Amino acid sequence: MSNTRWFTVDTHDGRTSVRLTGAWRLQHLAEIETALAGLALPPTVSVDGSALTEIDSAAALVLLRALHAAQSTQAAPGGPSWVGFSAADGRIVEQVRTHLEATAAPPMPRRQQPLAQLGVKVIALSDLLGGHVNFLGATVAAFGEALVQPRRLRLRELTVQLEQTGLMAIPVVALVTMLIGVVITYLLGLQAEKYGANIFVVDGVGIGATREFAPIIVAVIVAGRSGAAFTAQLGSMRLTEETDAIRTLGLSPMQVLVVPRVLALMIALPLLVFVGDVMSLAGAMAIAGPMLDVTPVAFLARLREALDARHVFVGLAKAPVFAAVIAVIGCRMGMTVGRDTRALGAATTSTVVQSIVAVILLDAVFAVLMQALDI
Amino acid sequence: MTGRPPVDRPGPDAVIEVDDIVTRFGAQTVHNGVSFSVGRGTLVGLIGGSGTGKSVLLREIIGLQRPTAGRVRLFGTDMWSAPPQELDAVRRRFGMMFQDGALFSSLSVAQNVAVPLREHTHLSSATIDALVVLRLLQAGLPADVGTKMPSELSGGMRKRVAIARAIALEPEVLFLDEPTSGLDPITARGFDRLVRSLVDDLGLTVFLVTHDLDTLLGVVDRLIVLGSGQGRVLADGTVRDVMAVDDAWIRDYFSVRRIAGDGS
Fold first, then answer.
1. For A270-299, what is each residue's pLDDT tens digit?
2. Which of A29, A106, A110 sits opposite B123 (nearest CB)?
3. Would an 8 Å CB–CB cutoff place B111 in contact with chain A?
């Protein structure tokens, strides 16, 4: 009947026997599988393993599945009989046979319909935002406790955080804002030169940099730097159960970890925005001379006339709000991260994205409010 | 220990050959001439005090870390001078279970076990799915854990999934790093039985690093002790042989068990 490299099928006196040959191993299994496909067998067969050099459990599984498939089409009085298997091969086949039924229908992950997926996302998002608001409340409450009992405030942690989020951020903030100052001046200058309105570039860059660009740029840098760091720090402390240790020592993680970070960032960010104001104007002044023939003296004189102090204050006033949002998102994502390393990475990325989106949304709200209030 | 395969059989039957391994980290010498060989179908345990470089030796055997000097051969192939294709072929003949499982956290349990099958075989999806279930069952897990993520599993289950992944390609040798660490005694004994059945039923050779005395006394065919200080093999043989060796560290190691045994 059908003979292949892997088995021969014989029929004697109405009994069919399948004689297996060679090494039934995983590396040949694709071939064996093809050879077995379409093999039509009667309900009772005897399987002869005397010519096998070996069989491994993967090959045994494929064989048993093929026999099972061939038989399930007809009524089978009893399964196949096994002859000539060595003790070791017999053990392997027997072990796989006991598991055969379970392998017939591998459990499948459940897929959701698109609408259900959308619903899950919406609920997850509202949970996330609700959680942020909740956490903000808890932070304010913890801060209130610290105000009533000032010795609960962790001054040491506060100064460490001030150094890390404020002092250490000065170089990158200074560099980036200076370059932004140069770029804005250059772009405005290209237009203003056409009308001989070189000096008015100072008006544009002065108001633009201090009111909008410096706060936004600095907040984005800090979201990437400190917001992500907060999530990573608190998240890894949760992984190593440090936050639980704090709790069992009778301390509050909100007091020990969160309040100092939020407070430090709310102090540091306005200072960094001020650094950003100065540096972006310095960058603007540096390029205004060679490009637009506006000398530093002329630049400063014009700046004094054109730049109202209120623009600078509006920019500085936005900073603590941005800081609070970044710090609360960063800390909350860290404090609620799942206890595995993958979740920590995902939470850190999520913090940066959420903080930047939140900062830009808030900036838009500020712009509309200021317009309405005529500031 | 009767009825089990004979131990310490170098030569053509040896699947793991470690020859005069020297490992130094800066001025510190961890191994100073470690040699042994492991025959097919045995369950070998490696023990030693802290800092004797058990895990380092394991990493050197499977080709993750280069020894300072000496040779490691798996199935007769030198792990540190063979051409890449030959090494790939060797890598498919052994499996490794890392201490905490080292499961791919972004994949489900079933996908984790399927990785080697999808990468190295040309089997149909249906067969791979069935094989994955078989591996999970062989590792003593229920089939329905396949849909879970590694982060949803307990430590013992993670280790079992790691075993299922390590045996996916029908390896001839299985390396286990601290298979029972962090497991409760009942789970750990179940794990011992699983490892023993892999040797007895599937004919694997198992090489494990462990601290667990019960594992050693219960299932191991042969024990290799790395000595601290001298960086050599301190004792090598059946558990009974090793316990008879006159050495302070070995006496201390097994005396813990004796006291505990007398106490209860």
1. 999 999 999 999 999 999 999 999 999 999
2. A29
3. no
Q: What is the mean pLDDT of chain B?
A: 83
pLDDT confidence of residue A284? 95
Q: Is the Cα torsion angle A161, A163, A168, A170 positive or negative in sign?
A: positive
What would the pLDDT profile of A145-195 be if each residue is shown by its tens digit?
988 988 888 888 899 999 999 999 999 999 999 999 999 999 999 999 899
To which residue do tokens 């009111």 refer?
Answer: A211
- Gap between the terminal Cα atoms of chain A: 95
Alpha carbons within 13 A on the beta-carbon side of B237: 8
B chain contacts of residue A30, beta-carbon cutoff 8 Å: 121-123
Does B105 contact A58 at a Cβ distance shorter than 8 Å? no
Nearest to A232 by CA among A103, A63, A97, A349: A349
Domains of chain B, residue spans: 103-170
State the pLDDT confidence band at A78, using cuts at 50, 70 and 90: low
Q: Do B138 and A29 touch (CB under 8 A)?
A: no
Contact A92 B143 (CB under 8 A): no
Class of domain A7-104 (CATH, top level): alpha beta
Chain B 142-161, residues with CB within 8 Å of chain A CB atoms: 143-144, 146-147, 150-151
Calculated CA dihedral for residues A161, A164, A167, A169, nearest 10 degrees: -130
A contacts of B202 (beta carbons < 8 Å): 56-57, 92, 95
The domain limits of chain A are 7-104, 115-373
pLDDT of residue A273: 97
pLDDT of residue B7: 43
**DSSP secondary-structure letter at A28?**
G
Q: In this complex, do A25 and B122 lie within 8 Å of one another by their Cβ atoms? A: no
Q: How far apart are CA B228 and CA A329, in angstroms?
A: 50
Question: The complex's ipTM?
Answer: 0.75
| Contact between B147 and A30 using a beta-carbon 8 Å cutoff | no
